[in-house]
Amino acid sequence: MLTSIDFKIFKEVLTFLPHNTIVITSHELVDLDGAASAIALNFFLHSLVNDLTTHLYFSSISKNTKIFLERLNVKFPNLALKIVDSLKNIEADRYFIVDTNKLKNISQFLNLSADQKTENYFFFIDHHYYEEPSSSEPFTAQGLFKDEYSSTCEIIVDLFQEFKIELTKSLRYLLIAGIITDTGYFKYANNSTIHILAKLLKNDIDIQEIRLMLKIEPHISEKIAKIKGTQRNEMIKVNDWLIGLSHVSSFEAKVANALIRLGFDIAMVIAEKTDQFRISLRAKQKICRETGLHLGKLLEEIASKYNASGGGHDGAAAITIDKKVGSLREVILTQIEKVLA
Ligand SMILES: [Mn+2]
Q: What is the pLDDT of residues 14-29, one digit of tens each?
């Protein structure tokens, strides 16, 4: 059972931390929201807790995140980011996990026994949808579960504010980048995102500079995936909604985004991997608002039924399914059509 707590109660969590060894981590293939949140949380904990040992660890880092962190390091040579590449020799008292609310989204926790899960202390900070009563996690953990936030970085910024800790300039760069990317350049942002962004920018950061630091020319394989994915696209019309269906070998999320930009209201792109199917879904905000479609909830329900791993937001979600189960293409499609009917 995961218990959602408040910033105020978070103060109590901090009182347990002195003399602890803490691992701060995030989901697989960590994105900038996860990485920035973890790095800022590390700074935050050291600002408030005495005699604390922390280790930042990511089981895998997305390419864009790596590139941004390198560019940030060039701009702030004193940043001295220390990220460990293994947890092997680390005896952690507690684990802080950001930008996900599921242990199974992190490979190093995948094979923990039920005992190990209850013995260890996990604390989550996350903005993804999570269902409190029917949580599938067979252990007790606490967290700041706040799906009204459009990024985990924004929760972290509010945490700094609540505890009156000043953010360094390099951390502000990092958090702004996390917010920009996780909101899809403000497509999924809300009013408080903009308020928080203004606070982070102050007068000394130029948002265009961060935009340029985030800019990466796509690799030719990504361009080809988008073009092939578009060529192979199959169109389904439900009432006046258009669903785009395609398959590629990789870049399924990028292809789904491309299909939405092309004009589809919903896009579903399947990638066939060696042992799994990975499916990315995207939906326009308009269709979510008008029909109540929530791709994250929909995939979470399907995932728990088929022993897969899935979830996300109303307009952006993904599911990973064991090859033996099949791609679940028709199952997902039927559920979407049910919502639209
Ligand atoms: Mn996020």
A: 999 999 999 999 999 9
